[in-house]
Design brief:
By secondary structure, the protein is largely without helices or strands. The chain is built from 5 helices and no strands. The protein has a domain of about 35 residues. The protein starts with a helix and ends in a 292-residue tail after the last helix.
């Protein structure tokens, strides 16, 4: 159908679009295309008049308050449809697709929902009777949503695809539960046991998960933006490709977890335990890592631009090809860490102990290295142009072929350094003189 429309429009508009920019002409054509996946107007009218609409396309249709008692909707597509307050008593919905449909306040007494797709359905205040034919799993979800569950032990429960938004599930036991593709947005989940639970692709946006236990849980590709994980146990958790941007992870335990390719931009990880965690290819843009334990962490190819790592422990970490441009690295513990070849331009390393550190070919242009201890550091071919090294200790450091053009070396200790082919052009030397070009 779309192809025919395009062909006819193309013939009729040849002259009209002649001389237009291609992008404008394309936009004009797209304005006439039918909306994809929209409800069929004829099917809606048919449903109103006959209540016989097996196999109809009613996707995203507004059927709020409709009288659909004993309607035949076998195999109908009702995905995302608004059925709020609809009268569906005795309706035949066998095999219907009700994914993400709004069934709040609807009456489903005596309705048949055998084999219906019910993932993401809104169940608040829905009427479901003992005579309603519905899979046991979805009856349990309905009971949970409507406060009919008295036992908080839901270990190993199948809640995959369930819409549990806004519920109060504090102190529940969901150990080993299947919550794949479930939505728990703005849900109270503090002190919940999620050990070994499957939360793959689950959405916990804006949920309260303080003090919850996620050890050995699977949160791969989880939607966890702005979620509160403060003091939560996420040790040995799979968070690969999870979206944790703007998440609160203060003092959380993430040791030995997998955060490969995770999105952590603007996240709060101050005082978190990230020891031995895999953060390779992760995005930590402007994240707060103050005081975090990053011992042995894998940050290869990670984006740490503008991140605050002050007072954190980064000993024995892997930083290969990571981007630390503009990061705050003050008062860090960097013993045993290889910083060679990294982009550390404009970073703040003032006062740090970098003695014997490998900084070969590292970009430290514009960096703040005031009073830093760089004794015996390997700075072979390092870029220190415009860096502030005032008061720093560079005794016995290797500055062979290093670029110190325009650097500030006032009060710097340079005894025993290797200066072969180093560039001091325009640099302010320890005695205040300018280096020769």
């Amino acid at each position: 159908m779309v192809e025919v429309i395009l062909q006819n429009l193309g013939k009729a508009m040849k002259n009209l679009v002649r001389g237009f920019q291609p992008s404008i002409a394309l936009l004009f054509l797209l304005m006439f295309l039918p909306t994809a996946y929209a409800a069929d107007a004829g099917d809606i009218q048919k449903l109103k008049e006959t209540r016989q609409c097996a196999g109809c396309n009613l996707e995203k249709a507004n059927l709020r308050g409709f009288y659909l008692r004993q309607a035949n909707l076998k195999g109908a597509n009702l995905q995302g449809a608004n059925l709020n307050a609809a009268d569906l008593r005795g309706a035949f919905l066998r095999g219907a697709n009700l994914k993400d449909a709004d069934l709040r306040n609807a009456n489903l007494e005596d309705a048949n929902l055998e084999n219906a797709k019910l993932a993401g359905v809104k169940w608040h205040n829905t009427v479901v009777s003992d005579r309603t034919v519905i899979e046991r799993k979805w009856r349990e979800v309905f009971n949970l949503v409507n406060g009919k569950v008295t036992n908080p032990d839901l270990s190993k429960a199948d809640l995959s695809g369930a819409n549990l938004n806004g519920l109060d599930l504090r102190n529940f036991n969901l150990q080993g539960a299947n919550l794949e593709n479930a939505t728990l947005e703005a849900t109270l989940l503090n002190n919940v046991n999620f050990q070994q639970a499957n939360l793959t692709s689950a959405s916990l946006f804006l949920s309260d998960l303080r003090n919850s236990n996620f050890s050995n849980a699977n949160l791969e590709k989880g939607k966890l933006q702005a979620t509160d994980f403060r003091n939560a146990n996420l040790s040995q958790t799979n968070l690969k490709q999870a979206n944790l941007s703007n998440a609160f992870l203060e003092s959380a335990n993430l040791s030995n977890s997998i955060l490969t390719e995770a999105k952590l931009s603007r996240s709060y990880l101050n005082n978190a335990n990230l020891s031995q965690t895999k953060l390779n290819n992760a995005n930590l843009l402007t994240s707060d890592l103050r005081g975090a334990n990053l011992t042995g962490v894998d940050l290869a190819n990670a984006n740490l631009r503008g991140a605050d790592l002050s007072n954190s422990i980064l000993s024995n970490a892997i930083l290969r090809s990571s981007n630390l441009e503009g990061a705050n690295l003050r008062s860090m513990q960097l013993s045993g860490t290889n910083l060679s070849g990294l982009n550390l331009s404009n970073v703040d390393l003032s006062g740090n102990n970098l003695s014997k550190t490998n900084l070969r070919r590292t970009n430290l242009s514009g960096a703040n290295l005031k009073t830093a201890n760089l004794s015996q550091a390997d700075l072979f071919e390092a870029n220190l142009s415009g860096a502030d090294l005032s008061g720093a200790n560079l005794s016995n450091a290797d500055l062979t072929r290093a670029n110190l053009r325009g650097a500030n070396l006032q009060g710097t200790t340079l005894s025993g350094i290797k200066l072969n082919f180093a560039n001091f052009c325009g640099a302010t030397m320890p005695n205040g003189s300018k280096g020769k070009c």
